[in-house]
Design goal:
This protein is mostly helical. 59% of the residues lie in helices and 5% in strands.
């Protein structure tokens, strides 16, 4: 990704920080996690070091997803269920996302997992309506390779994040109201499932922001071989 365009690669870091701050803002209501040791920083110091750390999220996930997409086994997922981005499908997706968001904000102790679903369900249809790049570029023909590359890539990335966090200080601690048993590091096993839609959210948010800057069919992130990106 760096050799492809160093300017856009730097852009991934610049996009990444506000993207994760969005989840931090939502977490003020949800209380899914907190940072043990944050009290030793001043407000400005905490904001600086947290922002610097958050810049790595999007590049790490997309870089690992591209790496996974380079393996031959991923081609087994090029003929799967079709998802047609027609008006009815996108409307249902958006409505479902909006309902999940309202439930999450109204009863956070029950519906807190929707933070990893609602944003994607709302933003993916918006990208389609605005003509931005979307995973439906592939899913309309049953090609699930980009989705699987993102899913496997984010699980690998998430595993290392959780491992490094476990032996770190300051560190994040999860404080969810249910499903918190059977941990692998600080993360409950069920929580790793949240990484899957989180990767799709990152993809949707990135292409929404790229669309704001006029890249309506941004192909910088390549989750399948280049010749097939051109066709898609």
């Amino acid at each position: 990704m760096l050799s492809r365009s160093w300017r856009k690669y730097i852009g991934l870091f610049l996009v990444s920080a506000p993207v994760w701050w969005l989840f931090e803002v939502l977490n003020w209501r949800l209380g899914n996690w907190h940072y043990d040791g944050a009290e030793f920083f001043s407000n400005w110091g905490y904001t600086f070091w947290a922002t610097l750390s958050f810049t790595t999220v999007v590049p790490a996930v997309f870089g690992m997803a591209e790496f996974i997409g380079s393996f031959d086994f991923i081609n087994r997922f090029r003929n799967g269920p079709l998802i047609k981005p027609n008006r009815s499908t996108t409307t249902v997706f958006f409505a479902a996302g909006a309902i999940m968001f309202v439930l999450m904000m109204s009863w956070p102790k029950i519906f807190f997992p929707f933070v990893w679903l609602s944003i994607y369900f709302m933003l993916a249809p918006i990208n389609i309506w605005l003509g931005n790049r979307s995973l439906t570029n592939w899913l309309r023909s049953g090609d699930w390779r980009p989705v699987l590359a993102l899913w496997i890539g984010v699980l690998i990335t998430g595993f290392f994040w959780e491992m490094w966090n476990y032996f770190s200080y300051p560190k994040w601690i999860y404080t969810i109201s249910w499903g918190g048993c059977c941990k692998l590091f600080e993360m409950p096993l069920l929580g790793y499932g949240g990484y899957l839609p989180f990767a799709l959210e990152l993809y949707a948010i990135y292409h929404f922001m790229a669309g704001l800057f006029g890249e309506k069919d941004a192909k910088y992130v390549r989750l399948v071989p280049q010749e097939e990106v051109e066709e898609a």
